[in-house]
Amino acid sequence: MAMQPRRNPAMVDRTEFGRARRIQTVLLAVLWVGWGVGVLGAVPATARNAAWPAQVGLVSFYGPGPRWHRTASGAVFNARALTAASAMLPLGARVRITVLASGRSVVVTINDRMPRSARLLDLSLRAARALGIVHQGVAWARVRRLP
């Protein structure tokens, strides 16, 4: 009777490792393509068309921004425009932002996306200047969608 060589339990079976690695690679590729196309993280149609009540939360200033950068709406980023980025509001929506501490208000157009976070909006340089929050960077504000 020939003895079978003993397998070292610390060694991982190469075929199983290779299979798991291929599955992981395929899943990451699908996620990457889905994110690039805009399928993942996209706002559902029901959320886009639903009434958006006034909300109070943090708004921030996202800096001058890179020149010639394209926004999610396809327009070239312009720091001198009254624009903002939102995670949930539809592109092209107009909103009135009122800073609670000062009462200053401005109407901006949503033209970009931002990752979901504790902030409601990221403002362009001109919008932040109009609200007087450039130096502090963030402020508590009321955000109301306009019809």
Q: Can you tell me the CATH topology of the largest domain?
A: Barwin-like endoglucanases
Name the helicity range: 10-25%
DSSP summary, beta strand count: 6
- Proportion of residues in extended strands: 25-35%
**Radius of gyration in whole Å, from Cα?**
24 Å
Structural class: alpha/beta
Mean pLDDT: 79
Distance between the termini: 86 Å
> What series of H and E elements makes up the topology?
HHEEEEEHE
The total of helices stands at: 3
What is the spatial order of strands in the main beta sheet?
A: 1-5-2-4-3-6
Number of domains: 2
Model regions low in confidence, pLDDT < 50 over at least 5 residues: none
| CATH architecture label name of the largest domain | Beta Barrel
The geometry reads as: elongated
Can you say what the CATH homologous superfamily of the largest domain is? RlpA-like domain
Q: How would you characterize this protein structure?
A:
- The protein is α/β, with parallel strands linked by helices.
- The longest helix has 24 residues.
- The protein has a six-stranded mixed barrel with strand order 1-5-2-4-3-6.
- The model has no long low-confidence stretch (mean pLDDT 79).
- It folds into two domains: 30 residues; 93 residues, RlpA-like domain (Barwin-like endoglucanases), CATH 2.40.40.10.
Summary tags:
single chain, 147 residues, alpha/beta, Barwin-like endoglucanases, 2 domains, 3 helices, 6 strands, elongated
Topology record:
Elements: H1 14-37, H2 45-49, E1 55-61, E2 83-86, E3 94-99, E4 105-113, E5 119-123, H3 125-131, E6 138-145
Parallel strand pairs: 1-5, 2-4
Antiparallel strand pairs: 1-6, 2-5, 3-4, 3-6
